[in-house]
Amino acid sequence: MLGAATMPFDKFREECGIFGVFNHPEAANLTYLGLYALQHRGQESTGIVSSDGRTLHVHKAMGLVADIFTEEVLKTLPGSIAIGHVRYSTTGSSQLINAQPFVVSGGIGNIAIAHNGNLTNAMEIRQELESYGSIFQSTMDTEVIIHLMAVSRERIFLDRLIDALARVKGAYSLLLMKEDALVALRDPHGFRPLSLGRLDGATVVASESCAFDLIGATFEREIEPGEILYVDKEGVKSFKPFDPVPQTPCVFEYIYFARPDSLIFGKNVYEVRKGLGRQLAREFPREADIVIPVPDSGMPAAIGYAQEAGIPLELGLIRNHYVGRTFIEPKQSIRHFGVKIKLNPVREILKGKRVVVIDDSIVRATTGRKIIKMLRSGGATEIHFFISSPPTRFPCFYGIDTPTKSELIANSHTLEEIRKYITCDTLGYLSMEGLRKVVDGGRASYCYACFDGRYPVEFPVDIPEPQMPLFYNIS
Ligand code: AMP
Questions:
Q1: Which of 88, 111, 434, 455 is deepest in the core (most CB within 10 A)?
Q2: CA 367–ligand 1 middle distance (angstroms)
Q3: Which domains does the chain have, with CATH numbers?
């Protein structure tokens, strides 16, 4: 955030995907493919760090995995160990210095770290470390882990890491690597997913299992909340150094973020989304001619709704797949345009029809409003808009990117006000009970904070964003 004014921490920080390989002659190539499969988790920057046993080799850049990692670039990343990262963040001009994996060399050796999640006490720790003289290179929360490892009194790498993690709070699925080892771990609450797989004699780890499918690896298991896996030439060792806390994996991974073909938190994402659609049909039965999804994220829930309600599913909106997610465009004016550029109605399907439209969530309601307009212009006579999650009222502090509280329409508007704004005939959100029933049989074992404001881990209010030193050259 070079030169930016201080702002309160009422902001989702970033969305990321991570991938790692140990003991494969094509470690960087596999990491490239793994990141390719995880591209939906972040489209702003990407990076791979490999180890040839003596040196760490790094390549990071702004942009998409397939554009950045050309054959020539991959040739510069030799060795049998690698970790990689894809990132989308909301920060401004200093994005490349915040691209991960983050690499340091110093008293603690050469270390690379890749992080998915968000540390809620990073600023507090950073201020403390800076007061003792630590000099930070980025504005990333992840960097505090490295600094804490550097100042730890422990001697062994793993003990230093455990020491550092004991101080940090929040959400972190992490990959670390040294020249001869890979470490993969999840925070004790297990906010973000991370899975372990095998490929021939190699160990692979990925944010989502869809990355294993692409490289032909077998899914072995999920890394458990609070578990640290240390992988070196002697094999995979598992440690659980922290006291257990209630597990609160992020329910929004199921609703929107993860890929439907992935298995996370013990369930297939597609099946969960379909179940949410079925539940939606039970909560909002309607006399209608067709059910249409808002592509692509509303698709599995729309299938579930249509099957449960016995109403035919049709593709009334066609998506142009060569456009990035509209949500990511920073300016309101471009976002409006983005919906049109991304979606187009099929008039022959919609004309004279009573339509149920399914989407996964409403954030600012920009998309919904545009879509309803499109469907009416396509000839739909009635539009019932149902959302396969409860109203998103609260910001996430654990690594999902959405706007500030005041920009979340459900935070400041009633259901009827939102319906009027969107201009649909009916608007219905899935109930909290319905969501709970589908994802965990009614128990409260997920993080639902974006819906109910109950944050499992405390976060600071009104702490300014870290500022880059003004002399930092970012070009
Ligand atoms: P909005 O127009 O602001 O209401 O955005 C709603 C759309 O954004 C829905 O179609 C969602 O699929 C999508 N969406 C929800 N959460 C996110 C997120 N964190 N990042 C990107 N897109 C999102």
A1: 111
A2: 8
A3: 16-247 (3.60.20.10), 269-321+334-452 (3.40.50.2020)
